[in-house]
Amino acid sequence: MRTDTQDGVVTLTFDHPERLNAVTTGDLDEASEAIERASKDDAVRVVVLAGDGRAFCSGADIGDGTDVSGAGGESLDAANRLVAAIVRSPKIVVAQARGVVAGVGVSIALAADLVLLDEDSYLLLAFTRIGLMPDGGATALVAASIGRARALRLALLAERLPASEALAAGLVTHVWPTCDYDAEVDRVVGVLRRGPAVAYARTKAAINDATLDGLDSAFAREREGQVGLLGAPDFAEGTSAFRERRAPRFSDELGR
Question: Between the CA of residue 1 and those of 29, 56, 122, 124, what are the distances in Å?
Answer without folding.
Answer: 10, 12, 22, 22
